[in-house]
Amino acid sequence: MMDQAPETETPAQSPPAAQATAEAQPPRAQAQEPEPAAPVLRVPLHVRSASLIVLASVAALATLKWASAFFIPLMLGLIFSYALSPIVDALERLRIPRAISAAVLILGILGGAGASVYSFSDDVNQLVTSLPAAAKKMRDALHVHTGGSDTTLNTVQKAAAQLEQAAQEAGTAAPAARGVQRVQIEKPRFDIREHLWSGTIGLASLIGQITVVTFLTYFLVLSGNTFRRKLVKISGSTFAEKKITVQALDEITAQIQRYLLVQVVASIIVGIATGLSFWALGMNHAAVWGFASAVLNLIPYVGAAVVTIAAALVGFVQFGELRMAVAVGGASLLIHTLVGNLLVPLLTSKAASMNPVVVFVGVLAWGWLWGVWGLLLGIPIMMIVKAVCDRVEHLKPVGELLGD
């Protein structure tokens, strides 16, 4: 029996030996780990919700624009009621009936405004009467400044007149084609009855708006806290919801009253300072300029610019010197700058301040929407919106955007 060769078996490697063998083998190419992604702010935004918000905003703007004849008197009456309520409340604490005190106060304000306008009417008429002579003086000054030579504007005007004359001659010389009727356009004649009628309609509309605002202010002041209690009652069923409503109403009242008080004080100071400075510079109708500066100061940004530019132009016409025009315009600009940048922020509480950029953009937007009334009512409306947004959870980002 033949001996079989024993099978050669590979002995099992021990764990240390296997580890040594693995270390001895060349390292395999490993996949590179992915770099960490940049942080991304994920904002939950639903397309349907965003579309509804945009459509609702457009619809609200269109409604405010279309129904401006209703909303403007309503907001004016509301603002005036905020301004007059503290005085009527003080008189009521003195045992004076609310109806009598409100009526006497409103009639006194209307009478004072009418008396002020009537007292300045002569100066205003003289200023308006002097405008043609002032325009002629400015034209002569510009003509002397240019040395009597034709400017580029005059050259363009002469060329346009010659082209128009040539076109008329060509149209007159061209014979009318057979079967074609010649049409001649005549300018409408001046109809004084139409202008008187349009002026009467405008005056009647102004008187009607003043009457509506007067009665609305009277009824709002007379109601006192009636609507306030009703709003608190319908705001919610829990005590927390009613408390939030009370806080929002208190903040709206405090901010608007503080804003109106500051604006009235600032306007009085601007009017007095402007009148005195213009009188010292020798400007004609200094009292009229002071009154106009006080009134236009109520319009943020725009009022100061209008007074400064107009005063500089009238100063140049009156004195005939560029130096005096710069002095008059500089005095007006200095007064508005000091009052607007130093006095108003000092009198206004920091809690009621708003972002200047947002205020400027908001004033422009409300001015586009409602004209001059939008410029006057823009800031109080944004104060109301901010006070409401600060108390509503989903609208807090809007309140943060409006705040300083």
Give a short overview:
The chain is mostly helical and about 400 residues long. The protein contains 16 helices and no strands.
Task: Give the topology.
Layout: H1 15-24, H2 47-66, H3 68-93, H4 98-119, H5 121-129, H6 131-145, H7 152-173, H8 192-223, H9 226-234, H10 239-281, H11 286-296, H12 302-319, H13 322-347, H14 356-370, H15 372-389, H16 396-402
Helix pairs in contact: 3-4, 3-8, 3-15, 4-8, 6-12, 9-10, 10-11, 10-13, 10-15, 11-12, 12-13, 14-15, 15-16
Summary keywords:
single chain; mainly alpha
Q: What's the N-to-C terminus distance? A: 109 Å
Given the C-alpha coordinates, what overall shape results?
globular
Please identify the structural class as seen in this structure: mainly alpha
Work out the radius of gyration: 37 Å
Task: Note poorly predicted spans.
Answer: 1-24
Strand share of the residues?
A: under 5%
What series of H and E elements makes up the topology?
HHHHHHHHHHHHHHHH
Number of strands: 0
Write a structural description.
With 404 residues, the protein is mostly helical. It has a domain at 66-145 and 209-224. The chain has 16 helices and no strands. The relative contact order is 0.07. Residues 1-24 have low confidence and may be disordered.
